[in-house]
Amino acid sequence: MNVNREQYMSQLREAIVQNMNIQVPEQLKETDRLYHDLNIDSIMVLQLVVDLEEVFGVTVPEEDLDPAVFETVGTLVSFIEQLVSEKVG
């Protein structure tokens, strides 16, 4: 796993812990499922989108809000990487 990806996972965990009042493991794994393993519900996902925009300085287009993006930590981090690279590029 590259440094940026690890950093994104750390920032994602911090956003979840600070803003959602739920317990998550100290180290997130790419295979952790948001809904099943981390107990994030659909309302929390909407809050998470707002948090991601603030933490990573990106805008999440509504048309990109595919449920598959929020399946696992890994799919969400890949989505964050894509948004950040589009912002930079």
Please describe the structure with a list of short key phrases separated by commas or semicolons.
89 residues, globular, mainly alpha, 3 helices
Write the SSE topology.
Elements: H1 3-20, H2 42-56, H3 73-88
Quick recap of the structure?
This protein has 89 residues and is mainly α. The protein has 3 helices and no strands.
Task: Report the principal-axis shape.
Answer: globular
Percent helix among the residues? 55-70%
Could you say which structural class the secondary elements and strand pairing correspond to?
mainly alpha
Instruction: Tell me the β content.
Output: under 5%
Count the beta strands.
Answer: 0
The rounded Rg comes to 12 Å
The secondary-structure element order is HHH
Q: Compute the number of helices.
A: 3
Mean pLDDT: 92
State the major sheet. Answer: none
Unreliable stretches? none
Instruction: State the end-to-end CA separation.
Output: 22 Å
What does this structure look like?
The protein is mainly α and 89 residues long. The protein has three helices and no strands. The longest helix is centred in the first third of the chain and has 18 residues, at 3-20. 18% of the residues are buried.
